[in-house]
Amino acid sequence: MGKLYDTVRQIDAVIARKNLPVFKTKGLIAIHVGFSLAMVEEATPDDEAKIDALRRVARQVLGEPIP
User: Which of 5, 13, 16, 48 is most buried, by CB atoms within 10 Å?
Assistant: First the structure.
């Protein structure tokens, strides 16, 4: 457990580093993946399909891959 949470934290780090608007950027990602990133907690169960979709959409929105 924790891969989904870690992926969201990595997205947060890229948003901060690029000085992007947090709510707009995370909202755009959330619309495309179908769930709110704000609702992901450390104890949220991992779902490989969600993680893959999140990484794919984040790459499109942020312009760089999320490991």
Answer: 5
